[in-house]
């Protein structure tokens, strides 16, 4: 297992930050990243980048470089647009230098991170986000919670929140990076992961409990979002903070 750990954010960041994290990858390690509805600010190979919300799997590596430690801060679904100061859709499926998004902050922050030790990097990332004084989009946050329930329909979520489906779609794209449909697919995959951790329950039953129409539907969705078969993916899948 590749060392990966998550740390709770400072109290003042709880509304917009899911976690601070560190990942130490050995040479030759290949990492598979799957959609989670989040945007991360990451110090990657010495560069500070914005990792936009992914709509499919991303496989990084393997690398021939020496073992390295990556530090990051994960924004909650619905917080990215406000924290970044741009529609989150502008960085969807992209890795963008933070200096391009925050030209007034990015370069100086990158220099400070280079000079800091690992705990100091996490502190600097957290302090920078706190200084943005951003607020998570409450409508999108509520929609994300509702979409996390099996059997939820976007039309029902919009009606419950008192907005049109079109309005909900626009707000979600701006705050998350993609619309409610994709956010619901990600939530369903995360439910499947949670139901599968250490479980011996037949896969078909887990698929139904997670909200898939059938095992075939689940298999197709897992392949699209992870690039792997359900059996292979769920062998070592674990929920990350989001």
Walkthrough of the structure:
This protein has 242 residues and is of the alpha+beta class. The chain is built from eleven helices and eight strands. It has helices at residues 80-84, 98-101, 106-115, 118-131, 138-147, 154-161, 165-175, 180-196, 203-210, 215-226, 230-234; strands at 4-7, 17-25, 31-33, 39-44, 47-51, 58-60, 68-75, 95-97. The strands form two sheets. The protein has a six-stranded antiparallel sheet with strand order 1-2-7-4-5-8. Strands 3-6 form a two-stranded antiparallel sheet. The longest helix is centred in the last third of the chain and has 17 residues, at 180-196. The model has no long low-confidence stretch (mean pLDDT 92).
Contiguous uncertain segments of 5+ residues = none
Beta-sheet strand percentage? 15-25%
Radius of gyration: 18 Å
Supply the number of helical segments: 11
Instruction: Name the structural class.
Output: alpha+beta
Measured as a percent range, the helix fraction is 40-55%
Give the helix/strand layout.
Elements: E1 4-7, E2 17-25, E3 31-33, E4 39-44, E5 47-51, E6 58-60, E7 68-75, H1 80-84, E8 95-97, H2 98-101, H3 106-115, H4 118-131, H5 138-147, H6 154-161, H7 165-175, H8 180-196, H9 203-210, H10 215-226, H11 230-234
Antiparallel strand pairs: 1-2, 2-7, 3-6, 4-5, 4-7, 5-8
Summary, kept brief:
This protein has 242 residues and is an alpha+beta fold. It contains eleven helices and eight strands.
